[in-house]
Amino acid sequence: MKEMIHDIKCIEPFYSEAEEGKKSFELRKNDRNYKVGDILCQWQFVDGQITGKNFCQKVIYLLQDFTGLVEGFCIMGVERTEGI
Hints:
This protein is mainly beta. Helices cover 7% and strands 54% of the residues. The chain has a 5-stranded mixed β-sheet. A hairpin with an 8-residue loop joins strand 4 (49-64) and strand 5 (73-81). It is globular. It starts with a strand and ends with a strand.
């Protein structure tokens, strides 16, 4: 199955921390049916406006339907990917 590419908004300071590799996870509402292998294209938002700056990460782990997670949300382990 081909991976999906998801364009997602990311505000500061989370964008910079993820871009620098300090944040290797995403906590998101799973309204897009995320799967391992999917690509997250993170778009930087500052003061409610897109800056045009972005980078991509690959989903390498997915946790959902687990005690402690709000229903409908997931945690994704991600790693930086180039060339998307």
